[in-house]
Structure prediction request, 760 residues.
Amino acid sequence: MSAPAATALTAQPALLTVRWSDGTVGEFASIWLRDNLPEDRDPHSGQRLIDVADLPSNPRIGSASLQGDCASIRWQDEPRTSTLPLAWLYEFAAGRRDRPELQRRIWLDGATLSAQRDFAWLAWAQLQADEAARLSWQTRLLQDGLAFLRDVPRVDGAILEAMNLVGQVAETNYGRLFDVRAVEQPENLAFSDRGLGLHLDNPYREPVPGFQALHTLLAAPDGGDSLFADGFALATHLRETAPAAFDLLARTPVPFRYQGTGADLYAERPLIELSCTGEIAAVAYNNRSIQPLRLPAGDCAAYYAAYRRFAELLREPRFQLATRLENGDLALFDNQRVLHGRSGYASARHARHLQGCYVTRDSVYSKTALLRQRRQGRAP
Amino acid sequence: MSAPAATALTAQPALLTVRWSDGTVGEFASIWLRDNLPEDRDPHSGQRLIDVADLPSNPRIGSASLQGDCASIRWQDEPRTSTLPLAWLYEFAAGRRDRPELQRRIWLDGATLSAQRDFAWLAWAQLQADEAARLSWQTRLLQDGLAFLRDVPRVDGAILEAMNLVGQVAETNYGRLFDVRAVEQPENLAFSDRGLGLHLDNPYREPVPGFQALHTLLAAPDGGDSLFADGFALATHLRETAPAAFDLLARTPVPFRYQGTGADLYAERPLIELSCTGEIAAVAYNNRSIQPLRLPAGDCAAYYAAYRRFAELLREPRFQLATRLENGDLALFDNQRVLHGRSGYASARHARHLQGCYVTRDSVYSKTALLRQRRQGRAP
Prediction:
C-alpha cells in the first residue's frame, strides 16, 4: 500500500513521533521500535530471530531523522543506527489493515432478509474458474458468516472437491464427510426426519469445527427447509438488553458430550465465549448434547433464567433466516457463529439427502488472503 | 459406579435434598431436575429431546419419595410423576468424575526431573497390543502434558500409524506429517540447524494444534537435544509472583503470522489464555512468528515488561526438562501447554531427521475414555 509523505520526526528517549502529510500522527514506543528492527528478521522466511528477552529493557532513542523513505534512529546505549521504512510505520499509525474479511457484518433480523438476495452466491463453474468472483464470495462469507454455492454436482463427495478450493476439510471421527438422511435408530438425531432447532454442530468437540458445509444431493419435496440465525447478533442483542444474563452465560462452563460408535467426546465451554478483550468470540448451543449442568443448587435459578432467555431468542421468528436449499445448493457457514436448523419432513414418503463436512477456520482465511495477494500481484 | 444407599429425601417446591448413608448430602434445584428427566432423552442416542425453552420456567416440586433405587417426584403444576435414579444423582452430589485424565499434574522445576524416570514411556509393541498399558500411558500423557514412545520403527510415516492409535492426526497445509531437518533457505527456521528456544507450534493457526508428536528417525550424534517446559506451571508461577504481569498477558491479544508457500496464516491470541472461569487454558509463545504488537505507545512499557518477564522464565534452566531423544523415540506433548525447544547442531557434519505431526485434542481424550470403558467392560 502506498503511504503519504512523512513531514516531521520528533524523538524523545522513549518515543518517536512521526507526522505524515495527510495529518496522520504516529507515536511509537522505543521498545516497540527496538523489537521490530528489520535486521532482526530472517531475510528469507521473515521470521523474527530474536526474543524479547534479548532486547535492552529500556532502549533509549538518541536521535532520529528522515532518510528518504525511512526513519533513521540512533540509539543512546548501543552503537547502532537502525532504519525503518516510513510506509511500514504508516500502516500502524493509520491502523490500516488490508483484510476486509475481518470486517464482520452481523445481521440480527434474519426474517427480513432473503438468502438469495442478501447473501453471497457463487456457481460451481465460477468457483472453479473465476478467482475474482471467488475472492469476493469468500470475503462475504467471512463477513456475514454464511454464503451459498449453487450447481454443485449431485455426486458423492463433490462437497469435498468444492471445500478443498475454499479451505481445508477437517477430518473427524465421522470421517471427512457425513451423510445427513433419516435412518432407523440414529446415533445422532440429525440423522432422523425430526425438525431441529437452531444449533451449532459439535460443541462437544475440541476444537469445535470452524466452518460447516451442507450440500443438497436430494431435497425433500416439502419440509426439510433450512433456518439460519446469526449467533453473534443474538449475543450482542442479549448483551444490550440483558447484560446480567449475558455475563452469566459468558462466565459459566457448560458440559457437552457425544457418545457413539468409536467416539466419546466431551468438552466444557460457555454458551457465549468472549475473547481476552471481552468481545464475542464464539457461541455454542446444541440442546441435544448439553449435559446436566454442574452448578450449585443455589445458582440454578439465575443461570436457567439466562439460558432460557437465550434459547427463547433463538426461537423468535424475527431473528431467523428461512430458506429452501434446492438440489445442488450448498450452504457454508461459520459453525461458531451462525446457528442452523431445519423443519421436519416425512422420510417415509420422501427421501432427503445432504452431505456435510467441516472446514478448518484458518484455512478459509488463509486461502482468502492468498487469493487477494494473487489478485493484487503480490503472490504467485 | 456403585453408590451407597439413599437414606432420606426432603422436598421443598424449588429444592430436593437427598441424604446418602456415607453422609453425602445432595441439593438439587427443581429446574435442574426438571431439565434432566430421563423421559426427555432419546432412548437410543441418549440425546436430549427438549430445549430449555420447553420447560416450565418455575417448576415446583409437590412431593418426593424414595422408590427403590429411584427418587420419585410429583410436580405441583403438571400432571406427571418423574423418577430419577439415585445412583445417578449421587454422582453429582459427590462430585464424582470418572475421568482421571482430567486431573492435571503441573511440573514447574523441569531441571529436577528426568524424562526417563518421571514421565510415561511405552514401547511400540505395547502400544499395539497392550490396552491396559496404553490406557495408563494415555492417562499420564493427559495429566503431565508430555509422554514418550520408544522403538517406533524408523520408517517414513510410522509416526502416523502410532498416532492413529492414540488419537486422530490433524492435516494442515503442511500435510499430515512434516519433516524436521536442516534445509537451505528454510521457510520456517525449524527446518534449519539453529537452536530453538522454548516455544509452542503454530500459534498463528486457528485452531492451534492440540498435540504434537516428534519422532526421531535419525538423531544427531551431538547437539539437537530436546528441551521441554510446562507452560501451565510457568503461567501459574507468574500469576503467583507477578499478578499484574499475568493479567496483562492474559488480557492482551498478540498477532501471530506465518507466510509460506500456499499459506498465509494469521491469528490473534493472548500469550496466556484463560477459561471463562479464569483458569489457565492455554499458552501461546513463539518468538519467530509474533508480529508487531498493535498497542498504543503508552501501553508498551508495561506490556513489554510483562512479556519479557514471561520470556525470561522460559529461559531459566531450572524450569527446563532437558533430554535426548534417541533413534526410534517419539515425544508426544500438549501443544497448548508444554513448550518445546532444541539445542543447535552442526548439520554440515551430521544429518538429523525427525518427523512430526499434529493430533486433534478431542480425539486423544475420546480414545482414552473409550479405552477405559472397554477395560471396565462398558463398551465393546
Q: What stands out?
A: The longest strand of chain A covers residues 211-218.
